[in-house]
Amino acid sequence: MKNQPAFTLALMFLLLIPAVGYCNEYHSQEVVEQNTEGIINWSRGVIQAKGIGVFQNKLPDHVKARSTALKNARLDACRKILEVTKGIRIDDTTVVGDYEGKNDIIMSKIESMVKRAEVVKKEYFSDGTIEVTMEMNLRGGFAQLVLPGEIRPLESIRTMVPVKNLPSVFTGLVVDTRGLGTKPVMAPKILDESAREVYGSAFVSREYAVQQGMSGYSKDLATAQNNQRVADNPLTVKGLRTEGIGHSDVIISNVDACRLRSASENLSFMKKCRVIIVVE
């Protein structure tokens, strides 16, 4: 059985082959939603898709044939990115695709953004096939376009009256929702047990929400707690359940909600979207 170690290694390699795809392009702690057309990386705030272009040997000009194959690969990837984009959840009840037929201006701008997606990888195969991986940012211009209108600039954020005798000041919020089936969205809400909003569109600055998203997402609690987004002293709370048909709004205990409301300074990190939600 001299060849047994080699056989074992070969078998392990073969077993891993079906998993190869987008998986080697992100870390295990990142929250990635995959469908047939591409992926949404909620942790990085990007959509990614792959497109295929076939080299036409019958064309006399090989340089032109390769250019055409590359162009077709890009078009294929852009088509897939657009389909993935339509499924992006804005909030608990709304997806980007809801704009189709209702707001042609927004959909037209989204389509233009898709066409400007960045090529992050090219692969040339021996049969002449070209595969490109393209990526579109969900932050910046896209976020500005689709985030709810009630998210206002910094000076419009409402204030809260602090609860006396509870002076704790935190630098961020980590919400552990593992086991609840929480679905990532562009504009999440955190509610107390009385359904009063603790964190949501009314509490954040539009500048920060556009630049970095209203919330980060992670699959690992320790990674989230040590993320610079929530700085040195984040409050970690456990989600009790999700609320709504989309399973994206999270209920926390009244005690934890009170701790957040205990100091007006806590509004500072909310304005800056220093929130991370941990999901499965």
Summarize the structure in words:
By secondary structure, the chain is an alpha/beta fold. The chain folds into two domains: 27-146, no CATH class; 154-278, no CATH class. Helices cover 29% and strands 20% of the residues. It has eight helices and 13 strands. It has helices spanning 4-16, 62-86, 104-115, 141-146, 206-212, 221-225, 254-261, 266-271; strands at residues 32-34, 39-41, 46-53, 118-124, 130-137, 172-176, 190-191, 197-199, 216-218, 234-238, 241-243, 249-251, 275-278. A five-stranded antiparallel β-sheet has the order 1-2-3-5-4. A four-stranded parallel β-sheet has the order 9-13-6-10. Helix 2 packs across helix 3. The two termini are 42 Å apart.
